[in-house]
Specification:
The protein is α/β, with parallel strands linked by helices and 338 residues long. The protein has 13 helices and 11 strands. α6 runs antiparallel to α7 and α7 packs parallel to α13.
């Protein structure tokens, strides 16, 4: 039997491959028993996208997506959820540890998480308090979509799924570029974005949502004001005269948690606004637009369809109801883009 002697180069290459394989196995073992708590619904969506749903040991009462979440034993809609006791929560496959603005520290202690994901300025103190108690906490407050994608990659790095996270974010960036290729050639529509149901609290600049409106071919009428949620006078909205009005709606929203189209259209002076005159007052799915992560791309596609319906298709699997206005087929479509 003839034995071929390997060159020094090939020996080094084999050693390198074996070393990398060993390190990957070490990493796999390191993350295998990871226990993660999501203090914001978008993290649940991100972990599912990364195939890490089996590592989730605690979440918020607002976690409801992807649809598989609702099949988890013990899950209930947020408006039906009621905390009874720590013992009762621990009987569930995934206990509710947070209402987003508050956390149950006793329950968190019982779950012994190895990683906690927190979000938003409202959770800064919670994150710091949990860190001071010895927990590993990753806290993110993305301002741009690049921040969102960086957040996903950092979560991937912290969970041993960086390669998958990079593939996903590269795909998202490509889809954004494809949308921009069209919207950059179109005239901008001015958009009034109402942030919640408690009156005219609006979206300013400096948030992923503001950037999503821009990518979709819209122009936020309050982009000259920095801030994610601030109150304005109705007269100022009338003065800025938006082409489109967006108001939030989300699954299971109670009767007092939705601003109806009628309420908006009958506000003082709103009968002169272009959006009202042209029947372009739309509800948007709050959870889709306000959860930075995998569904930011479908949200942009939905906005692009609402803003420029002749150039974009209504994306599949949109959460209904969305738009209450309609495109009148009697009007001829505009000329094709060159």
């Amino acid at each position: 039997m003839k034995v071929t002697k390997l060159s020094f180069h090939h020996q080094r290459l084999i050693i390198l491959v074996l070393s990398i394989s060993f390190l990957l196995c070490m990493d796999a073992g390191k993350f295998r028993n990871q226990r993660i708590i999501c203090l914001s619904p978008n993290y649940t969506e991100i972990l599912y996208a990364l195939g890490l749903q089996d590592r989730i040991v605690g979440w918020t009462q607002y976690c409801n997506y992807p649809p598989e979440v609702q099949a988890v034993p013990g899950w209930v809609r947020y408006d039906e959820y009621q905390f009874i006791s720590v013992e009762d929560e621990l009987k569930k496959k995934i206990p509710v540890v947070s209402s987003f603005v508050e956390v149950n520290e006793e329950l968190i202690d019982s779950l012994k998480p190895s990683l906690i994901l927190s979000s938003h300025e409202m959770q800064r103190e919670i994150a710091e308090k949990l860190r001071n108690r010895g927990y590993t906490v990753l806290h993110f407050e993305p301002v741009t979509l690049d921040d969102v994608f960086s957040m996903m990659e950092k979560i991937g790095e912290a969970t041993g799924t960086l390669d998958k996270a990079i593939v996903l974010t590269a795909q998202y960036r490509q889809e954004i570029q494809e949308i921009r290729t069209i919207t950059d050639k179109l005239p901008r529509v001015s958009v009034y974005f109402e942030i919640n149901h408690m009156g005219p609290y609006v979206l300013g600049s400096g948030s992923p949502m503001d950037q999503m409106i821009d990518i979709a071919g819209g122009k936020n009428i309050f982009e000259d004001v920095k801030g994610e949620a601030f109150r304005v006078e109705l007269e100022e909205i009338v003065k800025r005269n938006p082409d489109i009005i967006l108001t939030p709606l989300w699954p299971a929203a109670g009767r007092d948690e939705v601003t109806t189209v009628y309420e908006i259209e009958t506000r003082p002076g709103f009968n002169t606004i272009e959006a009202v005159l042209n029947d372009r007052v739309y509800h948007y799915d709050s959870s889709l637009l306000k959860r930075p992560g995998p569904r930011s791309i479908p949200a942009i596609k939905k906005l692009a369809y609402l803003f420029h319906p002749y150039y974009f298709k209504n994306p599949e699997n949109s959460v209904d109801p969305w738009e209450l206005g309609k495109i009148d087929d009697e009007y001829p479509p505009p000329a094709a883009l060159k």
